[in-house]
Write a structure and sequence with these properties.
The chain has one domain: MetI-like fold (Orthogonal Bundle), CATH 1.10.3720. The longest helix has 35 residues. Helix 5 packs across helix 7. It has 302 residues and is mainly α. One of its GO terms (biological process) is transmembrane transport. Pfam families: BPD_transp_1 (PF00528). Belongs to the binding-protein-dependent transport system permease family. CysTW subfamily.
């Protein structure tokens, strides 16, 4: 006759309930749905529904029609504004990267008071209104502004230059406003790169430039891609700065949409313009995500 002795270490499994699964690290499908339901409702009410109404409004005149989109394609003005918006966004993004990467590198490697000074120079503009910063550029670049005054006093020019209400003024002001959105993501990645990687490359015979090009720059690509996406998306949707420092020759899509809604009251056509701008933004994000995944694959192979 054999007897069985219960193992005191074996804990009987708790039966799965409607809210909990058998694993202590997982929730059941029902509880997961209840947890994400408020977020899904907020997303549906604050994003999906307005976007759906926007697209449906662009297809009405008053019945279903595509004439608003045909108007965008056939009339040269609107395609010119769209291309100028994309071009300005690309220039602002590249300029922000070229000017912001050294600042990010300095923030990641500076110590003491220098680190505090650079961080303050980057963060303080974020606490200032975009409207205030745009008006500051008007004070600097206007006909009787500070820049023209300094150039005339130095004898470099005889009469004031037209610096304000130009495409260059828009690019300059937008770059100033958006540069922190490039600096911070790149800095966040650079500060996580161990210094030993660069030291190892130098010990293996690489020079400073080669070590930066082959070690630091590839490892900082996620921050660069994130900063480029943020800057480009914000740039093509900018309204305040182009409206204040830009002229008719620097008209952008956001300003054009504002004119259609507030001046001409053509809401269906404004909805079509906004839908085209939204679609362009989504395509850009998808292309950047694909480029980032390809870059990670190439780095893993190398």
């Amino acid at each position: 006759m054999t007897t069985t002795v219960d193992n005191p270490r074996v804990v009987p499994a708790r039966p799965a309930s409607w809210f909990f699964s058998r694993s202590a690290r997982q929730y059941s499908h029902a509880l997961t749905f209840l947890l994400i339901a408020p977020l899904m409702l907020l997303l549906a009410g604050g994003f999906i529904y307005p976007i759906g109404r926007l697209v449906s409004l662009s297809l009405m005149a008053p019945g279903f029609t595509l004439e608003h989109y045909e108007r965008i394609v056939t009339e040269p003005l609107y395609m010119e504004v769209l291309l100028r918006t994309l071009q300005t966004g690309a220039i602002v993004t590249v300029t922000s990267l070229l000017l912001g990467f050294p600042v990010s590198f300095l923030m990641a490697h500076a110590k003491g008071r220098m680190a505090m000074l650079v961080s303050a120079a980057v963060l303080v503009p974020l606490w200032t209104s975009v409207l205030v910063r745009s008006y500051a550029w008007i004070v600097l670049l206007q006909r009787n502004g500070i820049v023209n005054g300094l150039l005339i006093e130095s004898g470099l020019i005889g009469s004031p230059l037209k610096l304000i209400y130009t495409e260059g003024a828009v690019i300059l002001a937008m770059t100033h406003v958006l540069m922190p959105f490039m600096i911070l993501p790149v800095y966040n990645v650079l500060r996580t790169i161990p210094a030993e990687y660069t030291q190892a490359a130098r010990n293996l015979g690489a020079g400073p430039i080669s070590a930066f090009w082959r070690v630091t720059l590839p490892l900082s690509l996620p921050g660069i891609f994130a900063g480029c996406v943020m800057c480009f998306i914000l740039a093509i949707g900018f309204y305040i700065t182009p409206a204040l420092v830009g002229g008719p020759g620097a008209l952008m899509m956001a300003t054009l949409i504002g004119q259609q809604t507030t001046v001409l009251l053509d809401w269906p056509f404004a909805a079509a313009l906004a839908t085209v701008l939204l679609t362009t933004t989504l395509i850009f994000v998808l292309v950047f995500r694909k480029a980032l995944s390809v870059s990670k694959g190439m780095n893993s192979v190398n």
